[in-house]
Amino acid sequence: MNISFATVDPLMSLLFGILILAFPKFLNYLIAIYLIIIGLLGLGIVR
Fold first, then answer.
1. 3-state SS of the chain?
2. How many whole angstroms separate alpha carbon 37 and alpha carbon 29?
3. Which of 40, 41, 36, 5 is nearest to 28 (CA)?
4. d(CA 31, CA 33)
5. Confidence (pLDDT) at 45
6. Quick check: 1 pLDDT over 60?
7. 16-40 pLDDT, tens per residue?
């Protein structure tokens, strides 16, 4: 199975959405982690 940016982004969004619903106190941390990962994927640093 080939994992690309197109498949990782929706899966991460779904996962973080569920985590935000379960643990609303961690909203800032989850958004920060999400943005860092998306930025790294977008720059091609992480494949």
1. CCCCHHHHHHHHHHHHHHHHHHCHHHHHHHHHHHHHHHHHHHHCCCC
2. 12
3. 36
4. 5
5. 78
6. no
7. 889 889 988 888 888 888 888 888 8
